[in-house]
Amino acid sequence: MFKFKAILLAAALALPLSAYAESALEIVKKASLASYYAGDDGKAQMLMKVYPQGGGKAISKLFVMLKKDVAEGGEQMFLTYFQRPSDIQKTTFLVHKKIGEDDLRRLYLPASDKVLAISGARKQDPFMGSDFSYEDVSGRHFSKDDHKLLGEETLKEQAAFIVESTPKVKEEKIARMKAWIAKDSYIPLKVEFYDHQGEVFKIYKTGKVMEIDGITTIMHQVMESPKRGTKTELLVNPKQVAYNLGLSESVFSERSLKNPPMQYIR
Amino acid sequence: MHVLDVFLSDPNGIIHNTMQKLLTEFAIRRPKMIMVLGFLITLGFLAAFPSLKTDTDPIKMLPADNPAITLYKQVKKDFAINDLVVLGIKSKNGDSLFTPGELAKIHAITEEILEIQEPPAETSFFSEVFKKMQFLKDHDQVRSQRIFIKEDVIALSVIDDIVKTEAGELSLEPLMGQPPQTQAEASAILDKLNGNPIFAGKLAAEDGSLVGIYLPLEPGKKDRAYYLGQRMKEIAQKHLGEEQTYYLAGLPIAENTFGNEMFVQMGVYAPAAGVVIFLLMLFFFRSIKLVAAPMLLGMMVVIWSMGALIYSGNSIHIMSSMIPIFLLPIAVLNSIHILSRLHDNLANHEAREDAIRHVMKQLFNPMLFTSVTTIVGFVSLATTGIPPVVVFGVTVGFGVFLSWLLSMIFIPAYFSLLSEDALKNFGKSEEDKKSVVMEVVQMFKGIANQAPHVVIAAAVLTLGIAAYGLPKIIINDNPVRWFKDDHFLRQADQVMNNKLAGTYLANLVFTAPKPAGDVKAPESETGDAFGSAFDAFDEPAGAPAPSIKDPQVIAYMEQLSQHLQKIESAEGARIVGGVVSLVDILKKIGTVAYDDPSLPTTREQVGQYMFLFESGDRNRGKDMWKFVTRGEADQAQMWVLFKSGDNQTTIQVVEAATSFMAENPPPTFTLADGSEASLKVEWSGLTYINKVWQDEMVEGMIYSLIGSFGIVFAMMVFLFRSVLWGLISMLPLTLTIMMIYGGIGYTGTFYDMPIAVLSSLTLGLSVDFAIHFIESTRDLHKETKDGQKTFFAIFDGTAQAIWRNVLVISIGFTPLFFSGLVPYMTVGSFFFAIMLVSGITTLILLPAIIRLYHRFLPGLKPSVQSASSLRKSA
User: What distance lies between CA B109 and its chain's CA centroid?
Assistant: First the structure.
């Protein structure tokens, strides 16, 4: 008798909770699609500035990144072509982002004329020596975490959901994440990454946002590592961004490393 | 009598006479007031002591604007160099630690060490409230709880190794993520380590018998090194078995330990010396109440001077920690002179006040001059420009002034307050017994009288021998040598340098010339106006800016590093145990990525190797950025690891590098404006800075010594109104300095900072003996008007006082022989030697000269007596 009551009570309590949980997942899914799967493919010239500890001189890299979504919300392919600094000009980097398995990463160094296979096991590894991880740049799949809606808040005059995501399988670095997701565009405005000591080790912030080909595009992203004291800025050149170019899968083959599709890169 | 009356009634009108009378009358008339004032002032200065801070940072040895310091600070910032605390784990029998069992222990120790934080602060109601108010500033609090930079710890279980996986993919794997299960896995870790040029020989001995854990301290946490060391010790003790032992090392530990032990030395050995001096004086004067006066005076001088030093905001360095030890004997010496004279004169005067007046008048001139010469000796140290030596010299100079002032006021005041009882036996005690002092002084008299030629010849010969020993002096100041051989830091130093590449780090800094007309503003944060960021990125056309990435620079760095590693000591042992630079990183990348360890040959290749390392590294190229600056890579540094911190080692390596660069000039660049500029190569690092300040110290000390020697000589000529007497008065100190430093040359004792400043002490103290001796010789001669009588009379009064001083101070400092810190031992033994040599010189050589040449000496001239008549009467 007592048991039965307890179950009823639990069910009653669980109902609104699960309703929230579902919408939290929905929010994260929409956010992921908005920020990482905009268009079927696309290109952007980007400038990455990494600020060392103590705020010294930033290291800048200029590159063009081509992207193709193999499956909406799933596998993706990226080809990065480096333009500056001049000593890494024509260096190319190919990433096939997989879900639930290791990424494929291939790096071509023109000075040695060799393609190198890079291990794609750790998605939390830093992307090109920046504060962003591979996952931060290409998107973390929503299925990896449990999501919970914590509430709503206005951030810089924008109404936002606050969603907390906790990895389903314990990870080395991330214990949980807390994201502020814009209610209108589903663009993440701010994300705090917590480590296992319960401290923030990374803070992501969205800067300028623009409408490109009718798609809300983040033009300026900042990732800070307060514990390290470093920071990375990632900027998109507004004159060099486009969606739905009709890029074929062959553009993202290993052949493109040595012979990049210059017609898209220009 | 009114103060003004004293002034007016002074018939001679000479200022110092007036001053003397003022001081003496003040002392005699207001003794109680002086006692109360003295007590209150002492309390005031004592209040400074709780805020005493120690600072043993070696970079404080040079002024902050010294070019070597400026470069070091820049390098330290640009290459994120932090001070390291090291735990070394070693197998006692020399077996490899790379076994599953041992590595499991090391892994566990590392894990536990990584969790060390500041102990939680005591919580109270207010601290809780404060914490809640500070809620948003949580990051700061977290940060302040860290003692070391966890992310930058270097240990087997936290560093990565670039490998090629079975699938042929490049991967950065932890070298020892988990302790290995099999012996084969364990041995493989050592092999991988030895194959990694960055860590080989640093993280573990090549035979695996020693493993190190390196913790870089958070900036500003250097004073926590001792705490960290203690915690590491506990953890190591908990895990290690019978077969292993551990060592703590690293400069912050050494500095911190030294700072802590300095307090012990100040708290134990300086007072111990005081006690011995007290007992010796008691033996000579047989009156506790009387002997208490110089002791009180000594304490006041020490407390006032140290208090003033602390109030002035200076922290206590190794040199300033020795101030009490230097001041105590000087202060006591002055008062012994007064007491001795009072002792001799008390019987001649009806009233005690008259005895005091008489003695103070007699002693005023010699006391003033001995004090001023001592002050000159110490204050001249201010010209060396070495901050701790300047602080030391000025403080001791101030202390000597206080000691003079208090001797003039406090001693007579104290004396006039003593009850008749306390003084009853004072004036007579020596008469009933032939003391040891008397016998020795009589012996000196015998020698000077019987064999004056031999004495003078011996002095000349000694000077010659000593002069020959001077060039043999080895200038060497290695802070680790401040600890005794059996100290844990000395042992750690020895073991670690034997087993590892070397723990003394010097840095060679390579700077590419600035491109002509480069006025690029520092990059600011992009903010909203980012559109222009893309346009601004375009590089100027033409030749690329000079960079370390230039293959000729890389090749040059490799040649230089190979040359440095070939340097051998006189015994054929390697001096440079290892060199690490960007060259090693490039070789490692080539080996792993292309199975090709040869260096890249084009600028693009260098840049792309570096790009590969940076983008493939879990730590974003952290290890590489220790050796080359980011972005344009306009500066690089090379670790040069010495097996010894002796500055002789540094000199040898620096000379070898200089001659290499003379034969193989660094590469040059053609700048955009067509001009040529070459790569700049400079030394930095603490080991090198040590050499720089030693060079400055030696030069500074020479000038300071010559300068103060000159000033003291001029003062002597002025005091005695005679060049001849001036010269004679300089003899004891000249002989003492020559003998001490000649002896240092012959015995091979390293000339270091404490020894260097001893020359000032010698200058100050030795000349005091001569002043007292000559002054009273001439005074006596005025009474006796007879060279013979003067010669003998001097051995009855002043000579005994001088010899008593010699004994009190030299024996008083014997407790320092047992000190745990080498500089204190050195100072103790040199005090002993300085006092004996200058005392004996004054008491044998000066009489021998007077005996032979008195007819030529001003003041002694009138009584021309033949040498034979003197000898007869002896």
Answer: 35
pLDDT band of residue A263 (cuts 50, 70, 90) is confident
Quote the CA–CA distance of B183 and B97 in Å, as a whole number.
Answer: 11
Confidence of residue B669 (pLDDT cuts 50, 70, 90): confident
> For residue B412, which of B301, B293, B296 has the smallest C-alpha distance?
B293
Q: Which residues of A touch B523 (CB under 8 A)?
A: 49, 57-58, 60
pLDDT at A15: 47
Residue contact A119–B165, C-beta within 8 A = yes
Could you read off the pLDDT of B832-863 as tens digits, one per residue? 888 888 899 999 999 998 888 877 777 776 54
Residues forming beta bridges with residue B750, ordered by sequence position: B474
**Nearest CA among B866, B868, B726 for reference residue B786:** B866
Among candidates B539, B600, B616 on the partner chain, residue whose Cβ is nearest the Cβ of A118: B616
Question: Rounded to whole angstroms, how far apart are CA atoms A124 and A137?
Answer: 10
Q: How far is CA A205 from CA A34, A232, A234, B214, in A?
A: 15, 11, 11, 35
In this prediction, residue B870 carries a pLDDT of 45
Residue whose C-alpha is closest to residue B621's, from B77, B79, B259, B143: B79
- Is it the case that residue B276 has pLDDT exceeding 80? yes
Q: What is the pLDDT of residue B336?
A: 78
| Per-residue buried b or exposed e for B25-38, using 16+ beta carbons within 10 Å of the residue's own CB | bbbbeebeebeeeb
The pTM of this model reads 0.79
Residue B730 — very low, low, confident or very high, per pLDDT cuts 50/70/90?
very high
> Are the beta carbons of B168 and A117 separated by less than 8 Å?
yes
Write out chain B residues lying below 8 Å of A129, CB-based: 614-615, 617, 620-621
Q: What is the C-alpha to C-alpha distance for residues B807 and B801, in angstroms, rounded to an integer? A: 10
ipTM score for this prediction: 0.86
Give the pLDDT confidence score for residue B661 in this predicted structure: 93
Side by side, the strands of the sheet bearing B635-642 are: B576-580, B635-642, B504-511, B680-684
How would DSSP label each residue in B489-513? HHHHHHHHHHHSS-SEEEEEEEEPP
pLDDT band at B871; cut points 50, 70, 90? very low
Neighbouring-strand partners of residue A204: A191, A223
Looking up tokens 């994440």 gives A177
Half-sphere exposure of A6 (CA within 13 A, CB side): 3
Rounded to whole angstroms, how far apart are CA atoms B504 and B670? 36
Q: How far is Cα B109 from Cα B125, in angstroms, rounded to an integer? A: 36
Q: Where does residue A157 fall: left (phi above 0), alpha (psi -120 to 50 degrees), or beta otherwise?
A: left
Gap between the Cα atoms of B677 and B432, Å rounded: 86
pLDDT per residue over B555-595, tens digit each? Answer: 999 999 999 988 888 788 888 888 889 999 899 888 888 88
pLDDT for the residue B6: 41
Helix (H) or strand (E) holding A211: strand A209-212
Interface of A with B in 158-217 (CB under 8 A): 197, 199-200, 207-208
Q: How far is CA B608 from CA A85, A88, A234, B161, B586, in A?
A: 10, 6, 21, 19, 10
Q: What is the pLDDT of residue B121?
A: 60
Give the number of other CB atoms < 10 A from CB of residue B129: 10
- What is the number of alpha carbons within 13 Å of residue B272 lying toward its C-beta? 16
pLDDT band for A20, please (50, 70, 90 cuts). low
DSSP conformation letters of B753-800: HHHHHHHHHHHHHHHHHHHHHHHHHHHHHHHH--HHHHHHHHTTTHHH
The pLDDT of residue B719 is 85
Q: Which of B799, B828, B833 is nearest to B815 (CA)?
A: B828
Flag whether residue A155 sits within 8 Å of chain B, measured between CB atoms: no
